[in-house]
């Protein structure tokens, strides 16, 4: 993780931010009660991806960062599951679903790759420097 000084430098956080913004754009104007409840939940879970990456990074230790990365990965999976429900309920079209699901899968894979990279690293975190 050479050259990474802030969580904003992490590509996976940047992609999480883009995903959250896109989910918010797609779901923020759903009007009916059931759609609004699902919309609120998917907006929260997609936001949780970027927030947990940031919070884990800011804790300064790899063990804590890894814990938060697993939570971020789980939130990407939750968002993906909610996308299926949105598709099944006719809230979004299949083309939108496929595009967003691909982005959620990218996040899951990217977060996992970062987890592996950190586990294989000698560096233990900023607070141990």
Write a short abstract of this structure.
The chain has 129 residues and is an all-alpha fold. It has helices spanning 11-27, 33-58, 62-88, 94-119. It has a single domain (9-124), classed as de novo design (two linked rop proteins) (Up-down Bundle).
Shape descriptor reads: elongated
Number of structural units classed as domains: 1
Which CATH architecture would you pick?
Answer: Up-down Bundle
The tally of strands reads 0
**Uncertain segments:** none
H-E string: HHHH
Radius of gyration: 16 Å
The top level CATH class name: Mainly Alpha
- N-to-C CA distance: 14 Å
- What integer is the average pLDDT? 91
The CATH topology turns out to be de novo design (two linked rop proteins)
Estimated structural class: mainly alpha
Helix content: over 70%
Helices, by number, come to 4
Q: Beta-strand percentage?
A: under 5%
How does the major sheet shape up? Answer: none
CATH superfamily annotation: 23S rRNA-intervening sequence
């Amino acid at each position: 993780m050479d050259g990474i000084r802030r969580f904003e430098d992490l590509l996976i956080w940047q992609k999480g931010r883009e995903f959250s913004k896109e989910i918010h754009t797609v779901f923020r104007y759903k009007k009916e009660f059931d759609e609004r409840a699902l919309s609120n939940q998917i907006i929260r879970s997609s936001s949780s991806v970027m927030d947990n990456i940031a919070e884990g990074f800011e804790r300064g230790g790899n063990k804590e960062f890894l814990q938060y990365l697993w939570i971020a990965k789980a939130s990407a999976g939750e968002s993906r599951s909610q996308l299926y429900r949105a598709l099944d309920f006719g809230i979004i079209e299949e083309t939108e679903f496929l595009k967003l699901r691909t982005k959620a899968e990218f996040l899951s894979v990217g977060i996992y790759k970062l987890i592996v990279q950190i586990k294989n690293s000698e560096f233990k975190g900023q607070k141990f420097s």
